[in-house]
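Exercise (ungraded).
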Amino acid sequence: MTVMSDTALQAAPATKARGYWATVGRRISRDKVSMVCAFVLVLIFLSALCAPWLGLADPYQGSMIRRLRHIGTPNYPLGTDELGRDMLARLIYGGRLSLIIGILPVILAFMIGTSLGLVAGYVGGRLNTAIMRTIDVFYAFPSVLLAIAISGALGAGIVNSIVSLTIVFVPQITRVAESVTTGVRNMDFVEAARASGAGPFTIMRVHMLGNVLGPIFVYATGLISVSMILAAGLSFLGLGTKPPEPEWGLMLNTLRTAIYVNPWVAALPGVMIFAVSICFNLLSDGMRSAMDIRN
Amino acid sequence: MLVYIARRIVYVIPIVISVALVCFLLVHITPGDPLVAVLPADASQELAAQLRTAYGFDRPLPVQFGLWMWRALHGDLGSSIATGRPVLSEVLRAVGNTVTLAIAAALIGFTLGLLFGLIAGYFRDTWVDKVATSIAIAGVSVPHYWLGMVLVIIFSVQLNWLPAVGAGPGGSGSWGWDWEHMKYLILPAITTSVIPMGIVTRTVRALTGDILSQDFVEALRAKGLRELDVFKHVIKNAAPTALAVMGLQLGYMLGGSILIETVFSWPGSGLLLNSAIFQRDLPLLQGTILVLALFFVALNLLVDIAQAAIDPRIKRG
């Protein structure tokens, strides 16, 4: 007997399990696709952030004699736009506004939606019905229509487009948060916390938040892809950013007239939107399989 | 079944009322006076007051909502401030063109999506699967209005094969199912189809994979069923969910067509919405959104009923 328990004791440290998040991190760092996407995103973020120090041309300075130069023109590696402004500079500077209006709505909706869903799922009963039935109303509108209806009614502008997209995403995140919370609510550790005298606020904050945040976070990461497309789409329609601000959706709109003169320069801003959107989508997929969450 | 349908319809009534309320309130979150678009800049106070009374904007909000709902129930959504024509007839004419576009796009997107999804799910983790999932993820990530521009660049500007904008040689009024008109439909339909194609592929792939890993498939194979017959069972089991996803996507195509219709100047409800927004034609804006949202609600109802019809388990749930 003593011999056996000795070996058991010695074996124990070797099989010490890694923490959940460490495992997830290790799995995702081994996923090539996710790592490439993360790298591309970091590159776009950093270049947008450090744009003034990259030695680029002035993104607002046009030149009537240098309009719509082709890709590869000396001094204008990506050509010039319809007002003769350097495309490379505008694409990199454009990342600043485009990323803010694309990502901020999801962050805001993540905070509001998680809180609403957590409360609805944990408290349950009438409060749940009230919150979830209100959410249902927003599901009666296709999301593009809702975003355009709200920002069309509010009028053009960056703040209005962020507000309208936030309103579009809150219901979606709330639904996910509510369903995850409902799944966790009746588990033993929550019961144990309640039995040991923890109040509802403490239980939600300390015991449940950490357990529901993962799936909601993965869902929200996937939403950024949709949000980037919609935010740029609002600007494309003329409902978001105003000229002469460099922003990918707006650039696509103003360059539309140039497709007969210099088509490929006109298509460049869309490549940026596409790149950011697909990277967030693939990253979300990578996290989902690393965390082993089912769709 | 009838009980189920009745229950679903009763459940939809509060949704419809709330949708109407949201559409109604949209106009009232607008900064400034809703009359701004019709009033000349130098209009007198009296004229403004007269018009306000004429449009009923001087009454309390709940009364306005009640009156608006009452008229809407009788098919009167007011008249467009810009053109003076009844909103309902304007919207319905435009919706017809959007339906044409959505159906064409659905034919392309759903066929490819089902095909790719089934193949990818069946040959999971092979190169076929990788190709299909890559196409699908590109489909859901592409800014479709940009894709529309790229297609125009390739097929209209460079190759000169297909027209870039519009809905036919005779303008927006006359649609026909001949080649002269179809030419105009091809690019917008392909552009519209990429998102549903991607989503259907991803859904069906996941479904097929799940079903194939279930025990009953093992049992079917064990009793000696041919692979083709096993496949039939897979399709049967995937159908209800796939149908629900496709219904939802059709709704998104009908309601979310504004970006693509703007790129191609396709004379549908999206283009109408666009002009309503920029001309600040609030009755038209309100009416278009209401009609599109009601379409979406009705479509969801139909999908629910169809789903229950092919899968009796749903009725009990």
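Further reading is listed at the end of the chapter. For now, observe: The radius of gyration of chain B is 24 Å. Residues 267 and 285 of chain B are 15 Å apart (CA to CA).
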